[in-house]
Write a structure and sequence with these properties.
The chain is an alpha+beta fold. 38% of the residues lie in helices and 21% in strands.
Length: 215
């Protein structure tokens, strides 16, 4: 794979990627997160209603010798199970019990990997996750639903080795205007939710092969 260009969006103009930092409640747990698509990175930088402008930092990752777990190469259930380890789509007792069973059945051991690569969960993902665990979504349309969100691909640096292979690209920093890119983010999310609801309400959703039938 060689070198790939990646982008990290933040409200901070100065960023120092540091091993061991980060929030365990992010998609893939603690780590430093970057995206392939610079335009999506700009949107994610200002996706919260804070009215603050942001910054996108450009990096290069030397991938040779890195052990990379790519959820795009796996069943979508494995990706969902990884998200369920770190993020709660609902706060009901039923969800907690079934999520635990789902993780046990479809989860993968991510220890030993330097980098985790996969889709990024956005607000529309939680709409689908909730409908899925409520048995309102057929398994056959699940992946199509999730991809309607145009989530973008992200990389999470997990090991010291990964951090040592990540280099700032000439200290390149891109200023992100809140009004412009927050509007783009909200439009993308609203469009995704509309398409998702249409698919859930369509005849393609038989509501017979659902979440609880997996156990």
């Amino acid at each position: 794979m060689g070198k790939i260009s990646l982008f990290h969006g933040t409200s901070d103009k100065i960023v120092v990627p540091t091993f061991g930092c980060g929030d365990d409640k992010h998609d893939y747990g603690k780590g430093f997160y970057l995206m392939e698509n610079v335009e999506l990175a700009k949107e994610w930088t200002v996706c919260r209603p804070s009215d603050m402008n942001g910054w996108v930092h450009k990096y290069e990752l030397e991938t040779d010798g890195l052990k990379i777990l790519d959820f795009q190469e796996m069943n979508v259930f494995s990706w969902l199970a990884e998200l369920m380890k770190h993020r709660e789509a609902a706060d009901s007792k039923r969800y907690r019990m079934l999520a635990r069973k789902f993780i046990e059945k479809f989860g993968v051991d991510t220890t030993g990997y330097d980098v985790i690569k996969g889709w990024r969960a956005n607000a529309s993902y939680f709409y689908i996750a909730k409908e899925f665990v409520r048995d309102n979504v057929d398994i056959e349309i699940l992946e199509e639903l999730l991809l309607l969100g145009d989530l973008g691909i992200q990389y999470c640096m997990k090991s010291k080795l990964a951090y040592s292979r990540l280099y700032s690209k000439d200290n390149e920093v891109i200023a992100v205007n809140y009004d412009e890119f927050n509007s783009k983010y909200n439009l993308r999310d609203a469009t995704a939710r509309k398409k998702m609801k249409e698919l859930v309400d369509s005849d393609k959703n038989k509501v017979t092969n659902v979440f609880s039938t997996l156990f």
